[in-house]
Amino acid sequence: MTNTATEAPTEPSGPAPVKSPRRMRVDLRQYGILAALAIIILLFEVLTNGRLLMPGNINNLIQQNSYVLILAIGMVIVIIAGHIDLSVGSVVALVGAVAALAMNSWGLPWWAAVLLALVVGAVIGAWQGFWVAFVGIPAFIVTLAGMLIFRGLTLVLLTGGTISGLPDEFTAIGAGWLPPLLGEALDGRDTLTLLLGVLASVAFIVQQVRTRATLRKLELPREPAVSAIVKSAILVIAVMALAWQLSAYSGTPIILIILAVLILLYTFVLNRTVFGRHVYAMGGNLFAAQMSGVKTQWVNFFIFVNMGVLAALAGVVATARAGSAVASAGQSYELDAIAAVFIGGAAVQGGVGTVVGAVIGGLVMGVLNMGLSILSVDAAWQQAIKGMVLLLAVAFDIINKRRSGR
């Protein structure tokens, strides 16, 4: 009889291999946009002999481009989902007219007029969302019709062409500053502005540290430490430089606080909520999203309701900054918002884009406008240059995707 011997399992020789933490690939496109913004700022700072970054010009850059940035925040969600909205400029004009009439002709206080304007924007968004989501008409057609409808209604409301004499509390939304509650320090600079800069920097660093700690605990990919440190240092320097310059002018613009809240809120919505994940899923693959149980009709509906509310807010800000409501308000705002989103890294096909990228794209457009204006470049050439920047940004995105596909 033959005995069958069973071999004992051999122990692995040498120490057990140590898992190396997974690294997240650096978003070169996002860093490229930041680099482009920095290069454009430095270029115009040199060409304008240091006038671009003067405190007054920085304040004007924020206030003059605030409504485009607000529109870009909403537009990036629309574009990520695979749609487009051509009506936002006309909505800005219509809502501005409604707010001005509410204060001057209907006797509403300024805050009630603002609330009414936001409600009107939500109703407009629901109107367009209904046709897109439940009837199935392409957003391009619906919003093109909306652009004509709402511009026409604006002309009907503003029969006199202009409504002026708006309350100071209302105009402060777009052209005012936070009061100097903490007094002055360091050669007359606004202490509150400097303090807000420090608090924003500290909050960003704490958030970055907590995010990396969470990713490390869950053993998820994370950005290389060197890249994260460099990014954080650049942002802190930029925030403190902005606060330093604004503190020497009139302090913190009210609209800057509104923009900061919107950026944080919508970054959270897109990255941390079910609604945000559904928006990305629909833009990436609509059929797969439907098969996964995403209620695409309702998501599309609320995307346009949200766009209507943000367009109304942009209308309030634009009217407040101008100090009056005019029928021609909002001309080409939709093109500026769309350009900002694509320059900021959104994909033409949908499914890709960030709120921060859209804001950076809007700042690129704003710096171009201001720098060219300081250099007294003809308006026609300004339009041509902005068009070329948009074309190059989209071309870069397409070429980058082709290389990734290979």
UniProtKB/TrEMBL annotation:
UniProt subcellular location: Cell membrane
InterPro entries attached to this UniProt entry: ABC_transp_permease (IPR001851)
Span list, region Disordered: 1-20
Keyword terms: Cell inner membrane, Cell membrane, Membrane, Sugar transport, Transmembrane, Transmembrane helix, Transport
Primary location: membrane
Keyword set includes Cell inner membrane: yes
Protein name per UniProt: Xylose transport system permease protein XylH
Native source organism of the sequence: Herbiconiux gentiana
